[in-house]
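User: Need the bound-state model for beta-D-galactofuranose:
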Amino acid sequence: MHVSRRKLFAVVAAAGLATSGLAACGDGTQDNDAGGADDKIVLGFAQVGAESGWRTANTKSIQDSARAAGIELQFSDAQQKQENQIKAIRGYIQQKVDVIAFSPVVNTGWDPVLKEAKAAGIPVILTDRAVDSTDTSLYVTFIGSDFIVEGQRAADWLIKEYEGKTEPVNIVELQGSPGAAPAIDRKKGFGDAIAANPNFKIIASQTGEFTRAKGKEVMTAFLQSNPDIDVLYAHNDDMALGAIQAIEEAGKKPGTDIKIISIDGVKDAFQAMVDGKINVVVECNPLLGPQLMELVQKVVKGETVEKRILTEEGVFTQDQAAAALPSRQY
Ligand code: GZL
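Assistant: Bound-state model below.
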């Protein structure tokens, strides 16, 4: 297998051997790697899709950061289909990129292609979402949020909002895409946190696929079959914003007749809080680009990196929205 000078350098550097001689003894043949001009690092990124404002901001952060870091980015959009992501990753392996990074659309079924990347000597970085592989040697690190904590933070607001009250609280839940780590864990974090209070009842729960359109469609159906909904828990802002349209078309006031808890923190959700239509937003930071490029450079140099890198994020309520909105970056 052709080993480029970059890769040889990384192996030697990791072994702590002198490298100047080695670099000088390159055989002078042209690297037949992914065409990184004059030894530029080449990163292959397989993105989930463009399903939400969060995802669009995540993509922009990665593209802008690669440009700023002088890293050549090969980018693919899988349109929320795992087979497309796997195909893209196989393409990066054939191109012999220096590093592969991706946001797994679902958390299962990745071992075969990750084993192919490992066999090709190409390090893999997980961003945003995790995989269920038990073999953690298949990826160098996972940088992203803790979705269980996000679900717990959503529940914390609800518990405070209804503290001391005894009437039953009917909750409907718009779940993210089936099988996606954020959908699984936001559901678990929220459900486990409210279980102690029997007044909290999730009377309907269905996927809105993280999109506005599907969120509106499912909320419309919820409203038709449940006349007394008190709270909507949406796994992301796009579904909450779609649901707001459905609630208003049903003649009800979002944020008042039906309280809304959402996750992500896109600008439109902050505006909806300013308008009194969303009550609380649990932040999920999509701006992973700068940290990802730092990780890529470290990995190529053969430096060790943390196995799990957690993104910092907060919780914003209606009273904080107006002040925070001008500085929101996505
Ligand atoms: C969360 C991310 C989720 C967002 C959605 O890290 O994977 O996917 O919450 C996006 O908006 O579609």
